[in-house]
Amino acid sequence: IDGYRNRWEAVEDKMNFALWGMWSHHMKQMACAVKPLFDAKRIIPKNIIIGTLGGNPLLVHQEINSVIQQATETLGTLRGMWPASRIIVYGLPPVIATYATLHSLEFEKGVYNWVLNDINSIFIPMQKGFAGKWGIFPKTYMTSDGVHLSPVGQILLDERFIKGKTAIPKSIID
Known about the structure:
Layout: H1 24-41, E1 47-51, H2 55-59, H3 64-81, E2 86-90, H4 98-116, E3 121-124, H5 127-130, H6 151-164
Parallel strand pairs: 1-2, 2-3
């Protein structure tokens, strides 16, 4: 989400640690690296926004069960480190990549199952609201290149983040 930080009201600049191209294990590693710094400053995030955990692995044809396992392990690590934080998990946007598209709903099901078993998380699916008329590939005005969100898509996702901050745990924000 780093590339969109100036467009999103839901994400605070000083607490944005996302980098382009990250996989879920990179996100987990970064969270583990910043945890001691947060503890030293007595920082407990109220909301953690994390998503597209399986996006890059699926774009390069990684095995779906492994991708789901790594994503849910990352979410479990976040929960263990910050038990009181709201975790807002967003799914995979529709892309022009057949393998990722074929496995996107299975991936989102796996991640949403984690959300259902968590104490304070919500899920934002991106297939329905961001896909075109067949519900598979992205709407052309939602993407800049068939993978990344356009400014319109970024604004719509930000609106879902804002709703997610006050939604009932285990909710789906669609």
